Structures are given as structure tokens and as C-alpha cells.
Amino acid sequence: MTTAVDLIKRAKAASGSIGQANTLVKNAALNAVAELLVARQDEIIVANAIDLANGSQNGLSTGLLDRLKLDEKRIAGLADAVLQIVSLPDPIGEVLRGMTLPNGLKVSQVRVPFGVIGAIYEARPNVTIDIAAIAIKAGSASVLRGGTAAENSNRVLVQILQDGLASVGLDAGAVQTIDQFGREGAQQLMQARGLVDVLIPRGSASLIRTVVDESKVPVIETGDGVVHVFIDETARQDWAVEIVHNSKTQRPSVCNALETLLVHRAAAVRVLPAVLKKLADTGVTIHGDEATRAIYPAAVEATDADWAAEYYTLDLAVKIVDSLDEALEHIAKYSTRHTESIITEDIANAERFLAEVDSAVVMVNAATRFTDGGEFGFGAEVGISTQKLHARGPMALPELTSTKWIVRGAGQIRA
Amino acid sequence: MTTAVDLIKRAKAASGSIGQANTLVKNAALNAVAELLVARQDEIIVANAIDLANGSQNGLSTGLLDRLKLDEKRIAGLADAVLQIVSLPDPIGEVLRGMTLPNGLKVSQVRVPFGVIGAIYEARPNVTIDIAAIAIKAGSASVLRGGTAAENSNRVLVQILQDGLASVGLDAGAVQTIDQFGREGAQQLMQARGLVDVLIPRGSASLIRTVVDESKVPVIETGDGVVHVFIDETARQDWAVEIVHNSKTQRPSVCNALETLLVHRAAAVRVLPAVLKKLADTGVTIHGDEATRAIYPAAVEATDADWAAEYYTLDLAVKIVDSLDEALEHIAKYSTRHTESIITEDIANAERFLAEVDSAVVMVNAATRFTDGGEFGFGAEVGISTQKLHARGPMALPELTSTKWIVRGAGQIRA
Lengths: 415, 415
What we know:
Helix content of chain A: 40-55%
CATH architecture of the largest domain in chain A: 3-Layer(aba) Sandwich
Structural class of chain A: alpha/beta
Strand order of the largest sheet of chain A: 10-9-11-8-7-12-13
CATH superfamily of the largest domain in chain A: Aldehyde Dehydrogenase, Chain A, domain 1
Mean pLDDT of chain A: 95
Low-confidence stretches of chain A: none
Number of domains of chain A: 2
Strand content of chain A: 15-25%
Distance between the termini of chain A: 55 Å
CATH class of the largest domain in chain A: Alpha Beta
Number of helices of chain A: 15
Oligomer: homodimer
């Protein structure tokens, strides 16, 4: 019987085919995938309907069922995302550094494929296409564990990816799903050091924590965000109102949404009422410390848990601080090092915030929602890394590659 | 009582001080360390003598005792290595990429310190100075576990590093040794995710394997090498003789030394006798397959274990293959992906070898001993990464840093 390890080995065996393919061939495969997605949308929708029915029966929340659902419009969106990846520059072969050594050796550092990329995520079939398509462009095979809840949808999507590869003569084994093996398959993927070069978890904080804790394969942690905005003493009121509102409410369920607002005491009376009024008008519940509640009595009392909360809802923790130092200390203590922004007119405070806040993205006078591969112009996003190793912040094609050193000699030996 | 975790937290607390220090201050600290090493050499030698005496008593091998030993000349060498790091460019603050987004946001990716770098290594006090000094230049604190066998030497060296930091007003806590906590301290270092940003094991294959398997902190694997040279059909005999001899014998105990020689059958009779004669003259024992032994009867019989052997001695496995394909397959199966070199006059074969061998460093017509931070002109080396995540090949200052994204706005919000 086939095991998850067999399929991981199959991906590894196919990694040479996709790894050596040139850009024209990889783009042809992706174009074929985009066409097949549209041509076979009925098949996808039928498979997806089974997942949705199972999900309803198993009591999946409305939000999760919505993420799971694929319809014509969403399938067209998936095809567009694949075509977007076709249009991006191929990262493979880029020469990053190079030199001629005193002995004449010509040395260059070249971007190369990882080999096999693993991904563990939850019931979002769009991630299946996103990650596999990015892996194809980056010259790597992929092994996907998308969760039992999306098993039927993912099976068809992976068939389409495999058919797209085969249609241009590439080894179809370079995309694999291991959903059918359940949790045991995920375990085997996490143990597959030597077969899988990097593992990317995407999903809830608990899923990511499990993968980070258990994986023997190197992991890129894509993190949830306890994201802060600090309204400094000199902040413009209009910017504060708009940036806080946008950061909190434009899409509250995502990792770059604002969770805690810190306000300099000297700006509180001047700025905070207008900021909180606009939030309240959009239905945001304010969890305030004592000083906030004195200014804004409608706030509920914030507890220690609120400072660490990733609400992902229309809730916001608000704290009034005495100084930039206190804001920096609070951020150092509670931030998940995803994104923080300062609103200020003071250049020294802006520079200090940029230098001292140790997060993947640090901003001045901008909404935290801009931490995004699409907004950064990367054209594709695999997730937002909150670790410091390998990649930090929005990850796209170059972040899904490795490098190697090429040395060209003419008989040189070491003295 | 102080625990290893206390000292790790102390390093974390000090990481802001070293992380925000500018190049002049960091260089001043390193200059002070270099001076103190020489000024306090008697103190170092006394402490080292205790370690050497304990080592003799505990039956350490002559080789290990030699690595452990510090004398005036070696201490001067350590001071020189620190001064060498002073002379290198500061990686921190380098802008790697940047763009202005359509909405006017100015985005840049800047090199920043890791924060806290952990290192686990074995009874080599020179590594204490190397890694701590590189970490200081790279703006990071370091937590060093150098092994109980070097505990007394390391304690004095770490005191000198701390005194050097304090002498320029930096937080002395930015260098810590946890040797005194034995294996338990190493365990706590490996569990310190969130406090330690990256962990670097240096030493035997078994030490590295243990750290890779057990660490919850992201690891950069610095690997041992089953290093191959392939003599292609068209190889020049003189280059083959010199490159193989140099790769094997110039320093057989290190990771970039040759371990397995593959020879194209069509080159064997023409090239191999001269290659093996020069090796034999230097005392190399040849472990040959049947075809090799037919040409060179003095060879001992190679077993399967020889193809996977990291001898680190004057032993060499030799195999005759029918084709470049067979050589590539053998390398794919047995290589530890450190360094491989082809000797050839055939440009197509050279390019194919460079493209298809999936190792940190791939060479044409050059000795494998060139895989080295010093040879590459990096000025300092932390080890040679054989993993694909974050850094691959010789690691120096830039490899011991992370990045962050800086976003400068003027009230932008996301539409």
C-alpha cells in the first residue's frame, strides 16, 4: 500500500525534473494548469461539494465553510493567480554575488531550487494552487497537506497540477497531496528530513506551533500577529484616525490587522476621542486600560489577556503610555514581531521606533495592512515569515529558493 | 542559583545594547578584546593547563588535546583573528532591496542583527573567540556551549570578551558561556525558542545530528563532508593528479577534504595510475572497487561502508564508473552535499555537473579544499552550512544576520 513517505519520495525523485526545467517550460506548465482549472471547473465544484457537505455535517463554522468553498468565480481567481505567477521573473539562476579569487578561481553564488517544499495548512483549497504554482515557478517539487476537510477538492486540484506538468513533459510527480493519510501523513512529512528541504505551516497559531515544535524538517514560521500602532505625542489627528481605523477594520480576520493601540498620554485627549469614535461607528469594541476608560467610558475593561490577544475580530485593546520608551517596552513584551507602526511628526522618535522595534515590518505613518506580498509588489505570497532565519516578512518566489556556490577553475590547488 | 536559562535571558536582555551599537563602537570593543587576549595570556594559559590536565586524565585523544591547547602563539593568532573581524565591513544596516510603492510608501529591506546566536561545539576554545567576535560585529549577543573539556579556558575567554564590551560602554552580558551547566545547559539552549534566534552546532557528525534532532531553536546545520571528485573521460592527467592529491592530503581532517574519487572508465587506465601513485607516496590508503583494484592491486577492497565514509584520515575510496550519469547518481546517493568537483575538458559535462550536483559548492577543475570562508575572501568563517535554508556554503558575517522591512509613509491606508 502507498504511504505518505512513498509520495514524499516520489516528489523528491521528481524534483530534478522541475529543478532543471527552464523558465519557458515552467511557464508553459503553469499556463496549462490555469487552462485546466477553468476547463475542469465542474469536476472541481463537484469534489468541493462533497467537502462542503462533509464540513456541514461535521459542524465546521460558517467562516471555515466559506474558506473551503470553490465556485466558478473563485476558480477563475485561482487561474488568474497562476497566470500572475507566470508573469513574475524566474528567481532560479539569479547570480547573487561573485568574485574572482587572487588565484584565478571564478566564484559565483547562484539561486537554485530548494528541491522539495512541504506545506501544512487548513481547509483552504486556494492555498493548494498558490503554493504548488509558486513551487513550480521556483523549480521545486511540493508535498501538500491541506487537511482532511478539503481532501476531495485538493485531490482534483493536485491532479490538475500534475496534468499541467505532464502536458509539457515534466515529471507529474513534482506535486503531491498527502491529505488521504490524515494526521499520520502530516507527522511523516514533519519527520522527512533529508527528503523535504523546507516546511511551511499556514493557518492557526496552534497549527503553526505544532509544526514548529514537532518538525525535524527546517520550518519557516508564518506567524499570527499581535500588531501594534503607537500614536505618538505629535501624531496628526487625521492620520491617526484613518490609519488606526484602516488597520483595525479593513479586514480584521487577517494577521496584519491591528490588535493593540498604544497612545502617548500627551496625545490622548487631543487625538483619542476621534480615533475611537470612528472605530465605534464601525462596530469595534474597545478594551481599554483605566486611562482610556476615563476618556472613553464606553470601553470595556482590558485585562492582561487583552495585551496578548490576537482577536481577529472587531475588538481592539487600547492602552495609554507615558512615553515612547513605555510603548517600546510594551511592544517588546507582547508583540509577535509581525508588524508595528508609529504615527508621529517627530523624526527622532520615528527613527528610534524603526531601529528598535524588532519586527518583520516596522512602519511610520502607514496602516499595518500594507504588510502583504501583493502590496509589496511581489505578485505572489506564500505567507508572512515572523522568524528571523532565511526569510522575514512577506515571502514570495525568491524566499522559496536556496543558493549554491559555483567555482570554475583551471587546475588550482590550495597552497 | 543561576541557571543556563538565566544566562540565556541575560544575553537576550543585552542584545539591544550590542544590536543598536554602531560600527565604531563594535570595532572598539573588538580591538579591546584583541588587546586583552594578549595582555592576559598568562591567565588564559593557566586556565587552559587545567583543562589539558583534566583532558589527559579523562583519556582525551592526542588530536583532541592538541585542539584544546592554547599557547602564546595560538593566543596571538586568536587576537589576530579578532582584528581581522574589525577590518571587515559591518553587515548591519545594509539595504538589500527597496522600492517606492504606487501609493508613495517607501519600502526597504535592511540587514539587522539576529538578536541572540547560540553555538554548541566541542573543546575548541578558538571557536569561543571566533563565534563571539563575529556575533559582536554582527550586532548579536551570543550564548556559547563549548563543552566541559574546555570549561576553564572558555571561562577566561568569555570574561575577556565581556571586559572588552564593558570597556566601551556596551552591555557585557552580550556574551555568555553555559559550559558550567553541562549537558543540561545544552538542552536548555536547544529549548530556548523565543530567546535564541539561531543555533549553530559545530563539531562531529553526531553532535550536529543531536542538535538538529533536538533543537526547537532554528538550526543552521554545519555539515561534515563526504566530498567527491569525478575524473571525467577528458580530464587532464596533470590536473587530476594535483587536484586529487591536494583535495585529499593537504589537510585530511577537515570537512572539505576529498573522501571518494570517481573515475570515468575511459580515463582510468590513462589517468588513474599516476593519480594513485602520488597519493600512495603521501601515505594514502586506497579503498578500491574491483575495477580500481585491477589497475592498482595495492588497493584494499572497498565495501559499501566506504562510499558513505567520512574518513578524515589518509584513506580514499575509489570507484570506476561508466559515465557521467553514473557519477551523478553515485554523488546523489552518497554525497552530504558539501562540495564536489569535476575534472574535465568537456564544457557540456562541466555545465551539467555544475547544474545537477545539488551541493553547497560545486567546482570544475579545482581542489575541494577551496570551500572555505577564508579562501572565498570572507575574512571570517562560522562554519560551512550544508542545509538549504538561510545560508549555504561558507558562512561569515552576512550569514549571521537577519533582515527587516522598513516602511515610511505619509498617512497611507489600504483601499
